Amino acid sequence: MNTARTDFTPLAVLAQLLDRLDASSTSADPLQYRLLAQRVTQLLHDLQFKAEAQDGLQGLLRSSPALTLLYENLHYAEAGLCRAPLAQSVAAEVQTRQLLGRLAQGGAAPGAHQPDASPEPGTPA
Fold this sequence. Notes:
By secondary structure, this protein is mainly alpha-helical. Helices cover 61% and strands 0% of the residues.
């Protein structure tokens, strides 16, 4: 039986470069970053319909935060934040709903600065 093997080397190298650019304290050239992201997108698209490539792709996604983010953005319409852990996603949803509830009731967001009220209008604080 002759099965085709997928070479993940180009995608792995570009994913490492994306991770380094994202973690860098200096900003990358926007055109360079765009070209890199476009090339990675093309490689991801090429792997999309190869069933034998899915295990290798999942391994790369686990090892590269920047690749994972790009992958999620490309597949958001179908699956949302499909790579985020479920517990983390649920916790974020609950916290958001609680915050929106407090704000709707006239409460302040936690950590928000409340201005000091003057005792009387026109009186300096």
